[in-house]
Amino acid sequence: MKNGIFLAVGMVLAGLVTSVTFAQGPINNNGQPLGLGQNNPQQQPQQQFARQPQQPQPQPAGLMPPPFQISSAEAQYIDKILAFWEFRSKKVHHYEANFHRWEYDSVFGPPDPGVFKTRSSGIIKYEQPDKGLFQVDLTEHYVPPRDNQPASYEPRPAEVNEHWVCDGESIFEFDVPAKQLKVWPLPPEQRGQAITNGPLPFLFGANKEDIKSRFYLRVAPNQGNTKDEYWLEAWPKRPADAAEYRFISILIDQKEFLPFAIEVYDRNFNPEAQAPNKPNFSRTVYKFTNRQTYEEGGLTANLQQMFKGAFYQPKLPSGWQRVVQQVPAANGIQGGNIPANAGRPQQQMPR
After folding, report:
1. Region Disordered: what ranges (predicted)?
2. Contact 213, 221 (CB under 8 A)
3. How would residue 135 be classed by pLDDT, with cut points 50, 70 and 90?
4. Domain that holds residue 171
5. Which of 2, 216, 287, 297 is the most interior residue, by most CB within 10 Å?
6. Which residues, listed in sequence order, are joined to residue 33 by a DSSP beta bridge?
């Protein structure tokens, strides 16, 4: 399951090459494995609710059925988290961080669900309202034990890592083998919201009502350090989102009230499947470190842009071509999703 920031973070969205092997679940703020599995925005929520299921509510046509029921107390608790999260996100004009990504693959990866197939590191940047950068600097692949040597992770010298930029009107893809900077124009109706409306609207511009309209939410069944972290699970309501992933775990730290880790579970995730079905533990874990946030008009952000230039204005490398892609309407963004297969003959947009 290959995910860019649009299906990581989202996106989208959303640095770390380590030798740590993670268990079947999210990671805490210290990088350790976790178990699987009107509001006043100034007052952070506390987890105090009884898990008494509420009565099922009728769902609008065209949405996925709810995978669970939560109590009214839990719903109020989640509303408080979302309200404070939205309040915090609106203050962030510019965001950048290193990320680490671990990909677990039950089909093409190691058979052990606790051993990842690849690990990557890179950088992510965002600026309101819809400018972003996602760049993988290094990817290492699992190498099985050989010649009496233990399993290891090694880079592939000829591999081309993901690198794209969004300026709010187009997505720029760096196609290294072809020496082309591919420009994918966004449909007019999607300009200004392509990143925040991606499959992972959890890194940038969190909006309480938008998140609730797209996801069934609950507190993660097996929370970790509830004193310093908030754990939520988001299950898609839209069939288009459900075709991409089963659910997403979001880990928010209490200090900055921004996600420090996101885990995307494969749409067929079922690690305990019985024959004739095979267990599916495929998932992708993102962890964000060295996070820096700047408010609009802040001196630091202004100086950065003055001396470094805007990150969302990619420069054409020497000897490269700038190629504007023609994207048929049928292959445009549907429901906020940008299709995969970037750079392939189908000429679809990158995630």
Report:
1. 31-68, 331-351
2. no
3. very high
4. 5-18+66-331
5. 287
6. 27
Buried b (16+ CB within 10 A) or exposed e, 22-44: beebbbbbeeebbebeebebeee
Query: Pick from 316, 251, 306, 246: which is nearest to 281 by CA?
Result: 246
C-alpha atoms less than 13 angstroms from C-alpha of 335 in its C-beta half-sphere: 16
Which of 44-48, 59-63, 120-124, 161-165 holds the top average pLDDT?
A: 120-124
263-283: pLDDT as tens digits: 999 999 999 998 888 999 999
3-state secondary structure of 323: strand
Residue 48 domain-assigned (yes or no): no
- Which region among 9-18, 163-172, 293-302, 306-315 has the lowest average model confidence (pLDDT)? 9-18
Could you tell me what percent of the chain has a pLDDT over 90? 41
Spatial separation of the C-alpha atoms in residues 84 and 50, rounded to whole Å:
22
Residue at 346 is within a domain: no
| Whether the bond into 129 is cis, omega within 30 of 0 | yes
Does residue 176 carry a pLDDT above 60? yes
Tokens at 249, concatenated: 């775990």
Residue 215 located in a structural domain: yes
Q: Copy the structure tokens of residue 321.
A: 């071509």
Report the chain's mean pLDDT, rounded to a whole number.
Answer: 76
C-beta atoms surrounding 246 within 10 Å: 18
CB 22 within 8 A of CB 114: yes
Give the type of residue at 60: P
Number of domains in the chain: 1
**Distance of alpha carbon 44 from alpha carbon 42, whole angstroms:** 6
Report residue 22 as tokens.
């993670």
